[in-house]
Amino acid sequence: MDRTQEVVDRILAGDVRIAARLMRELDDGRPEVREILKELYRHSGRAHIIGITGAPGVGKSTLTDRIIQYLRQEGKTVGVVAVDPTSPFSGGAILGDRIRMQRHALDEGVFIRSLATRGHFGGLTASARAVITVLDAMGKDYVLVETVGVGQDEVEIAATAYTTLVVTVPGMGDDIQAIKAGILEVADILVINKADREGASRTYQELIQMLELQGHRKAIAWKPPVLLAQAKDNEGIEALMAAVRDHQEFLAQDGGKALQLARASRVRQEFLELLREGVSRRLVKQLESDGRLDRVLTDILAKQTDPYSASQALVLEMLGPVKPMA
Amino acid sequence: MDRTQEVVDRILAGDVRIAARLMRELDDGRPEVREILKELYRHSGRAHIIGITGAPGVGKSTLTDRIIQYLRQEGKTVGVVAVDPTSPFSGGAILGDRIRMQRHALDEGVFIRSLATRGHFGGLTASARAVITVLDAMGKDYVLVETVGVGQDEVEIAATAYTTLVVTVPGMGDDIQAIKAGILEVADILVINKADREGASRTYQELIQMLELQGHRKAIAWKPPVLLAQAKDNEGIEALMAAVRDHQEFLAQDGGKALQLARASRVRQEFLELLREGVSRRLVKQLESDGRLDRVLTDILAKQTDPYSASQALVLEMLGPVKPMA
């Protein structure tokens, strides 16, 4: 039996040690790792992926912790990918938090993998998606993807989950306006955490109003609920998980039509990202190997051309004009 | 005279109204806008670009505000690009801050443009670079690029400035560890803001130690200084700007060798980003127009293939293997 198949079989059987090693090797870009991922991908697609995103400081990690706890009590297995430098999972938070999280480290039904946004220039999205695939193939019932709601890649990773939670806190003031711009659109469920703080009911009203405006524009069948929670005190978690279940049922109704759409959109995103990455790598290799990259850069620096013209010309040269259907 | 040339001439002459309109139109992707950018690019390259990055809450915007004030007092013109949802420039901060910033709105020597990270999925980096080009071509002496030090794209935009300031605050504890992972490497100058807070001297010692470790690894000629500041009280700004001047002089010495290297690396980054974007757009158009994208996605969903294999095959089909130098 070859090594690829052996690793694949062990991970499918839930071997935590082998899975952890593969995840560490993901960024190497070695062909073997890619072969293993290909196999694992075909065994993925069963986990329910939940995205958890929001501004720094809203308590995403504590909420994630409570969701893990809830799901474990229900007997579900859980994988966690944290793409958040302020997350205790990723090593960015205060020690107390980190110790609190470690209780899950001894639980075989939970697998946590963190990716720091810093230091992963260029490969964060691909790495996160690969880790999700591995956790899914391992047979986890749920995969939680916690990302900080600031960078565009980070928001997008959470947005392509099947159920996306957007977390906010009362009284963020103008931040609510900022949320409107992009993050609200990706929410399947809105959570106002730290709901004991002043201004919770005003924030609640504002979010409801914004959702109504959005509902008129988008004509979607699912109406995102707005929920109050105090993750620190484990309050509001049952109602939140009931909403997650409602959303899962919504996705599954009519023979799973909505789930299929969500899956298709997820696959499209993943495929196009890989295609872009592959094409870029291939292009740069070509341009470096025949010395063209250096020549183009020299011309741009000498103001003989500009990056816009040079890239346009090169795209046309390498790919030609768009050809109609054969 | 055609419209492109007219717009270009007006912007080169510093017409704020026309420049503002062009910046609003940047995201449209219309061919005229691209033509204008091409022309402007050839007139860019004179501004000193300063990147300002760091975690949310460290006071980047207040520091940016103080730097603007300092440079204006020196008689320099300033352009600002804020890519930070927590920045008052981008509309994410409390009202008081925003009003404080507006004093610059009446100053013709300052031009501020903000880009929200949210709501700009897919085009943030390109938009930010284009705005920098416009401000540079307008003849601004300095272009300040404020980005939140969280998302990978956001950090990279600041990192490709000529002088990059990384801002932190005392007592971020484990966050210092997180900084080590990626952000420290992009710093030309480190600023400990809110230096009246407890723990400033410990943070200072830690940063100095980390820089020493890094210095051994990288063997670089420029040793990033660590500076204390209280931007709110306008303290430490003179020393900071002296360090910026030192760095400018460092870049200019030996006939500007280091500056040329920084410029070349900046141009390389910008060109490759545009190339990737152009190739992706062109590829997706092709794949959609001949129906191949739908077929591939259907196959992936049916587990007939996986995104890794499918993207690899497609890259090979469209671009062939890497050809050696002609």
What attributes characterize this protein structure?
55% helix, homodimer, alpha/beta, 326 residues, globular, seven-stranded parallel sheet
In short:
The structure is a homodimer. Chain A is α/β, with parallel strands linked by helices. Chain A has helices at about 5-10, 15-25, 30-40, 60-75, 95-100, 125-135, 150-160, 175-180, 200-220, 235-290, 290-300, 305-320; strands spanning about 50-55, 80-85, 110-115, 140-150, 165-170, 190, 225-230.
Can you walk through the features of this model?
The structure is a homodimer of 326-residue chains. With 326 residues, chain A is α/β, with parallel strands linked by helices. The first copy, chain A, folds into 2 domains: 1-43; 45-254, Rossmann fold (3-Layer(aba) Sandwich). In chain A, 55% of the residues lie in helices and 12% in strands. Chain A has 12 helices and 7 strands. Chain A has helices spanning 3-12, 16-25, 31-42, 60-73, 95-101, 124-137, 152-159, 174-181, 200-218, 237-289, 292-301, 307-319, and strands at residues 48-54, 78-83, 110-114, 142-148, 163-168, 189-192, 226-228. In chain A, strands 3-2-4-1-5-6-7 form a 7-stranded parallel β-sheet, sandwiched between helices. In chain A, strand 6 (189-192), helix 9 and strand 7 form a beta-alpha-beta unit. In chain A, helix 1 (3-12) packs across helix 3 (31-42) and helix 3 (31-42) crosses helix 6. Mean pLDDT of chain A is 83; it is low at 88-100, 118-122 and 174-178. The interface between A and B is large, with 89 and 89 residues.
